[in-house]
Amino acid sequence: MIQPNLFIREHLRLGPVPGVAGVEVYQAHSGSRLSRLGSDAAPYWAYAWGGGVVLAQYLQAHPELVAGRRVLDLGAGSGLVGIVAAQLGPDVAAAEIDPFGRAAVELNAAANGVCVALVDVDIAGEPPAGFELILAGDVFYDPEVAAGVLPFLQRCREAGTEVLIGDPQRRDLPVGVLEPVFRGVVTDMGGVEREAGVYRLKNPHPASP
């Protein structure tokens, strides 16, 4: 059986993330042999995705968003967004269901000298208690995933949690319920430069004035 921690350390390279200052994460390269994990494996954790990169950039430009708040990095992948948040504030958790992703979060957080606690979150259930800010990078990459994530994030927003979403304008991004707050050019998977944005999720049931 392949051990996630060992595989990541042996087959990925720890290196800087283009466009995000002061952070290094384990990233795939031409010799990473990700095919060993099987055709059904989706190694989201092995790359810095554009939505996460633009969210990281936004946090670094606005550290006050994190200061003094309990933060959740939802669908953390490599943990990039949570790591940047943890560099700015001490109380950050990450939710990631893939065992390789969970290992990547731990390894990458340790490599950057920060603590990002792994937590379990059920997007079919109630909003997780205690979080004041949810960061969701690249969670609208697939229509089926988007159909589950959006109602969950809306429940979180209605419960009073601020939600920031990073995405390079994918087809399933629900722009009708989002407020754009930041835009930039990032290097996405495969080394492709593309425009990406940060969006604040609107409250589906705002309080009456």
TrEMBL record:
GO terms for biological process: methylation. Keywords: Methyltransferase, Transferase. The keyword Methyltransferase applies. It comes from the Bacteria. Signal peptide: none annotated. Pfam families: Methyltransf_16 (PF10294). One of its GO terms (molecular function) is methyltransferase activity. This is Class I SAM-dependent methyltransferase. It comes from Devosia albogilva.
